[in-house]
Design goal:
- Helices cover 9% and strands 31% of the residues.
- It is mostly beta strands.
- The radius of gyration is 14 Å and the shape is globular.
- It comes from Nonomuraea thailandensis.
- This is RlpA-like protein double-psi beta-barrel domain-containing protein.
């Protein structure tokens, strides 16, 4: 699909992308999280297998700007499912979009590693329930591969 300018959000995820994953709290209290808002989709809960994606809408894209870090991410809306695979262990979890985020442009060049396996740029935030499926919450950041489920 042709884009009119380099800043247009991409329409399709052509293949898996590698980046960093972090975790965030939303919805009802769960684990380390107290109650908070339900996210951009209105369905986010810390105890559910969900995530925040930087390209859920034009408004979200305008805030998160992963293209500022040289990363093209497809437009995916509330409920779309991604598979997140930890590059350190090979474990994966399938989660659904429930919020907009992370603000990728604030983390351009940030890098997390486990041994010699590394990834750069914070591209996805998981709920604590989802993050704990692939890594310990105390690790904070992990290198992952993100693909469609």
């Amino acid at each position: 699909m042709a884009r009119s300018t380099a800043t247009d959000p991409p329409a399709d995820l052509l293949g898996p992308v590698q980046g960093e994953v972090s975790w965030f709290c939303c919805g009802t209290a769960w684990g380390p999280c107290s109650s908070t808002g339900k996210g951009a989709c209105g369905t986010c809960n810390s105890g559910s297998l969900q995530h925040a994606w930087p390209n859920t809408s034009d408004a979200c894209w305008a805030i998160t700007r992963p293209d500022s870090c040289g990363v093209s991410l497809s437009r995916r809306t509330c409920g779309f499912r991604h598979r997140i695979t930890a590059l350190c262990t090979g474990t994966s979890v399938v989660t659904a979009i429930a919020d907009c985020g992370p603000q990728t442009d604030l983390f351009c060049g940030e890098r997390s590693c486990c041994g010699a396996t590394c990834a750069s740029n914070r591209l996805i935030d998981l709920t604590p329930a989802a993050y704990s499926q692939i890594a310990s919450l105390s690790s904070g950041l992990r290198p992952v591969e993100i693909s469609t489920a």
